[in-house]
Amino acid sequence: MDSEHHAPTIAALRAALALQPAGLTRSDRLAALERLRREIRAREAAVKSALLADFGKGPVEVQLTELLPVYQELRSARRRLGRWMRGRRLGAGLTMAGTFTRVIPEPKGLCLIFGPSNYPFMLTLGPLVSAIAAGNRVVVKPSELTPRTAALLAEIIAATFPEDHVAVAQGGPEVAEALLAQPFDHIFFTGSTAVGRKVMAAAAPHLASVTLELGGKSPVIVGPGADIARAARMLAWGKLSNGGQACVSPDHLYLHRSIAQPFLAALEGELARMAPDMTGPITPRHGPRMQALLDDAAAKGATLRPVGQPPAGCTVPTLILNATAEMAAMREEIFGPLLPVIEYDDLGPVLAAINAGEKPLTLYVFDSDAARIERIRAETRSGSVAVNLTMAHFAHPTMPFGGIGASGQGAAHGEAGFLAFSHEKPVVVNRFSVLPLLFPPVTGRVRRLVSLLLGLLR
């Protein structure tokens, strides 16, 4: 589906939705999810080939970061769908005594999913699993920056779903703009904060709800109680995973001065070991942009320390020592294998600096002191906090994942993803409500009952 004929397909999706406004049955949803699982399983080799061709992503990293999370989403949805669909019962309270209340999740309707280029397979199909589990009709727009993966996604979806259930729109920004002009009921977007603002603005005229999975500058705080070897290994893996091109990639490092030298030595060693297996850049603009950040930092007094030998075409992992706030690398989301390092003695200014910027998608903390960790959590605002690990929390099967402010809106994964594509409809049934006892005419008994009710609630 391209920009010239997306409207008829959307009309077909709307027509199918009108025939089944409550969404697909549980058995139909489960069958669709199982068909998707089988199609992915049959095409694993093609997934690896497509991602290798698009930006040099190795087969093991594809298995770990693209295939495994999708299989996990599928398994979670298939195992828990019955419980998710049942909804929940709510207590009545005094004023609604005698009523029975349930909240029942219903599909939002026709949904639009924008897939990104950095994890083009996982971050496109993961939300699709949630949308299908919730019973919606869907249009999927894969990223045009990874064309082989986009074409493969179109093949998988066409082989799995009727076009009046899930359709694919391929193309560039013009297709995205044409789609955003349509009256979707919910839009799920993964990408940059700048484009996320445009998506939200486009949704406003239709009053469509949105889930925005954005990014930002996720800081790392390494405290004096950190396990140096484990923290360095975890940080290096997080920084180089997908070539640093991840929304939850560790962006910059606040390092306690008391352990700075041994930690940096350990970190350099880990970066050097991992660099040969790095994923390549997604776009040709990536390399020049990384170099511009390095040049700017050097011109403003930073010491650059390149580490390791990555594959040809990749930016060499580089520590930017003595980083300062005016450097571009400390103002822009890096999205690459560069790591600004700021040494500190007092935690207060570090927390103040984090709070002075946009709210990050994730805040990473490495330390063994529980009180210090709790202080960092309590005195900062971020989409999530990860203690003594990086990146892996994104694939947590039951944890809501999402940002706040400039790093996103709403949550995904597991039941949170199911609810993102659902409207929780309250249904209240009157059995023997006490409210008629308070109706006019206002007699002495009514006054006494109202006073009694207020007294109980005050």
From TrEMBL:
What Gene Ontology terms describe what this protein does at the molecular function level? aldehyde dehydrogenase (NAD+) activity
* A GO CC term assigned to this protein in UniProt: cytoplasm
Q: Does the keyword NAD apply?
A: yes
- Keywords from the UniProt entry: NAD, Oxidoreductase
Q: Which residues form the active site?
A: 213, 247
Determine the domain of life of the protein's source.
Answer: Bacteria
Q: Which Pfam families match?
A: Aldedh (PF00171)
InterPro entries of this UniProt entry?
Answer: Ald_DH/histidinol_DH, Ald_DH_C, Ald_DH_CS_GLU, Ald_DH_N, Aldehyde_DH_dom, Aldehyde_DH_NAD(P)
Where would I find the Aldehyde dehydrogenase domain in this sequence?
Answer: 11-425
A GO BP entry is: aldehyde metabolic process
Q: Which PANTHER family match?
A: ALDEHYDE DEHYDROGENASE, ALDEHYDE DEHYDROGENASE ALDX-RELATED
Q: Which family does it belong to?
A: Belongs to the aldehyde dehydrogenase family.
Designated name of the protein: Aldehyde dehydrogenase
Species the sequence originates in: Fuscovulum blasticum DSM 2131
